[in-house]
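hiii, so i know i said id send this last week but things got crazy w the move. better late than never?? heres the sequnce for the chain we talked about at the cafe, plus the structure i predicted for it. fair warning i was half asleep when i ran it
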Amino acid sequence: MKKKILLLFMVLLLIPTVRTYAADFNMENGKKISGSYAGAEEYNYYCIKPSSSGFIAINVKTSDKQPLFMDICDADKNVVASDISVPNKKTVLHTAEKGKVCYIRIKGTEGASYTISYKIQKLSQLKYAKKTSYLFTNASFNNETCALYFKMKSNQSGILHFMFDTDSELNVKFVEGKKTALSDTFTVSGHSLSGIGINAKKTVYAKVWKSEATNAGVTSLNGVKYQVDFVNTVNASNRGKARKLRKGAFTETLVPAGKKTVSWFKINNNKAGKLSITVESRMLQNKGKNLRLYICNASGKKLNSDPIIISGETSVIYKKKYVMKYPETTFGTTAKFPKGTYYILVESKTKKSSGSYRIKWQ
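okay and structure toks below
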């Protein structure tokens, strides 16, 4: 008899154990569900089956007013996004795929309760000049293939400024149609302001993703906003349409993203003498050598065989507000120019550098 009991005990030891969880719950879009501390070694699991793709917007409310910690798991309860801290009465966004089951895993805090709910939402077009704040799981945009896309539309031509404040280091690229690059990738952190030159009635996206590929934690993007500083567009792409420069007065020219540009300017020099030309660069991704300038005679022949390189690029600092500085480049001719008509030709040689510049002569 003792041998039979011992044999039975050994057989039971060989049977795989099945882990039990504090509780499993099914969640419905827009419906609140309450929970409490699951136990020292246990978790509550909340099942979500997204009805559409986009983001799961998880809203949290805690009885102790403290952040609620959670993980997000796949259908097999393997963690795919960890160490997610959601402040009381705030919402965190995590990427969702239609029909793909996931779980919110919560241990909770002993002596405290919480309420959670979710909705499926998409990143809608940003409202012009209106700030919006977000909290994302890092797993949602930890590489370029799963980047966030902020849609922006300009009703006027000018320089589109895209700005936000973040607690992380992020990569940004401006694109058209989510595929065609309008800028190179650049890295930002803290208070960030960037932008591109843009024509009227144009829709573009700011593509944003984490610099570090991590599935842990969250990233906040606060005060996400865009606005456009108007710059008039004038077709001066050939010498016959050249814009006349008044002596001593700046004329501004837009350099839109996504195209190479050529602009002609006309000078009527009423007195023989040396020419002095000043260019104020408002370029945003200039890379030091985008604008090339030539001085031409009345027939359009270039008088300088090598271009004058305009290397200035807009710089931005934040002191309670964004302050932009525009570098100036001034150069003069070494020889006196006879009285007469001259032209200045300015070329933008890359599609991924844009903004504007102001030019004057005296």
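btw The radius of gyration is 30 Å. thought thatd interest u
miss u guys!!
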